[in-house]
Amino acid sequence: MRTRSIVLASSAACLAALTLGAGPALAAAAPHSVGHAQKPEVLSCTAGDTFAPSGYNGLDLHDLGPLLEDYNNTGKTEPEVMTATVGGSMTVTVSASGSFDLDAIVTGFKATFGVSGSVSLTGTEGTNTTISTPNHYYALAQFGIWYYNTNGTYGYVDSACKEVDEQSITASVPHSVGFKSWTSKTG
After folding, report:
1. Under DSSP, is residue 104 helix (H, G, I), strand (E, B) or coil?
2. Cβ contacts of 171 within 8 Å, gap of 6 or more
């Protein structure tokens, strides 16, 4: 019985066929060379910081200013308008010491979980919300910036696509500006 060796060339079509799970049969149909090897392609990457998040928790509020409250003593349900008395900002914070590319953290977070986030957000004084408040209840509101805590691996990818200087971090990623509001029998 005669055997032949087939060496697959390092071509995009062959690599794609194998990567997509087409298996050796389809990969063999890609351009190839019989009997001699060709020079393999060199993988290259754009060097830069990366963040690969592994999880995140629900939204939490970074408070800006005091808790706002108003009591409804009108005898019926009324809209209570609550107005922020203080403005402020929140920027991505990281739980580890060092220098971090905050854009890389936000990009990794958004790409992995499909939720919006920003490097920095600002809430302005004078922003308001309306709370439908039953008679003899307090309307309560806290103005601030909603954020996610996310954890994962932060590192640097070099031009040869190798991860270097990896470390586990937790980051707080600003999501939106707004109020947490509720009503209560007691203020």
Report:
1. helix
2. 51, 92, 93, 94, 95, 100, 105, 109, 149, 150, 151
| pLDDT tens for each residue of 109-166 | 999 999 999 999 999 999 999 999 999 999 999 999 999 999 999 999 988 888 888 9
185 Rama sector, left if φ>0, alpha if ψ -120 to 50, beta otherwise: alpha
Residue 57: phi, psi to the nearest 5? -105, 180
Q: Which tokens hold the place of 87?
A: 């403005």
At residue 92, the 3 state secondary structure works out as coil
Torsion, CA 101, CA 102, CA 104, CA 105, rounded to 10: 130
CB burial class (10 A; 0-12, 13-18, 19+) of residue 108?
Answer: buried
Q: Would you give the DSSP letter of residue 85?
A: S
User: ∠ CA 10-12-16 to the nearest 5 degrees?
Assistant: 110
